[in-house]
Amino acid sequence: MRSRLTRGLALAAAAAALFALLPGCEEKPEFPRELLGTWSSTTKPYADRVMIVEPEQVRFGPLAGALDSFPISGVVPPVEGGDGSCRITYLDREGGEHTLFLIYEDHGGGRLRLRNRPGAVWTRLKLRRTTT
Length: 132
Known about the structure:
Elements (H helix, E strand, L loop, with lengths): L1 H20 L15 E5 L7 E5 L3 E6 L5 E9 L8 E7 L5 E9 L5 E4 L2 E8 L8
Antiparallel strand pairs: 1-2, 1-8, 2-3, 3-4, 4-5, 5-6, 6-7, 7-8
């Protein structure tokens, strides 16, 4: 009787551990809201380019023209005591993973810096609504 109970508990623990490892079962961290928006830069090589950060995708392209969209596959918010960067992983058309490390600064409506190009400053665009 005791061995059945022990075996049952062991099976239950193994099943719980396996369930926790299944993809999609882990809780997704909340996307940092301050990163959301349309950003532009005047710094070369990003001058006249736009980056749109949304919870499900990131888009890049010229200020006037078609944008390339990439689905976001993972987000790691900034950690306390770190460099303040948020890690965003996105997928290209072939399924390859790429990573953006974005550092948000609360200055003049907000600005972003890429960790690998700290001299390039991205500012939030204030989009104007047009009525027709």
